[in-house]
Amino acid sequence: MLAVTAFGLARPLADFLVGRSLRSPLLEKLEAIVREDPAIEKILSLRTIYTGPEEVVVAAKIHPSAKLNIEQLTRAMDDLDIRIRTALPIVADVFIDVTASRAEDKSRAP
Asked: Disulfide: which of 26, 47, 68, 101 matches 22 by Cβ 3.0-4.6 Å?
């Protein structure tokens, strides 16, 4: 009886295990939010990880739009953070690594 109960409870809670990524529909929604932001030229990497039962951390590495100065970019990233948290209340923290194209090119040089 205990084994059946354990399996019955484990299945619906498996998606909330610490260390897992968001499920596909939510990950696709997150990616669409980031991709549609005019301040972002290119998404290099987008990762999510559960850090608690109802808490997800988002980490993104992006190329910013070359048209923005540092103040505009800072405001745009703050706005993106708010949009992500509003659309996906399960997101606890958002970390965005802004990488210029030049920096990425140099890091790959032999």
From this structure: 26
